[in-house]
Here is the input.
Amino acid sequence: MPARQQYRLRARSDREIIHEAQPGKRYVDHETGEELRVVSAVLPLAPSPSSLPYSIENLRLCGCSLEQLVQKDLNDCPHCGRRLPAVERQSSSPSGSPSQQPAAAATASQPTDPPSHQS
Here is the structure.
């Protein structure tokens, strides 16, 4: 369980990082040399059972009657206490079945006649 709070730090050039910040410490961007300022705290607030930021990429529905959003790295729902099902991973390779292929891909394989140009 992460005990420290994560913060969003931003440089003048709008580069951002998420890092555990400590009060009174100076943070510098290693690539630009600019000073980073704390602009906000990242949800969930510490202490939290999850180490993932509260963003759409890291959330899923609990599945219980409460239908609460929980982070993907949790095994148990913090709202109802039930065990969460395994996270489904998306495959990057196409399955090959014609019903799941996009229509544009199916029509791209058909030969087309080149336009005739007459002068």
Q: What stands out?
A: Residues 98 and 106 are 8 Å apart (CA to CA).
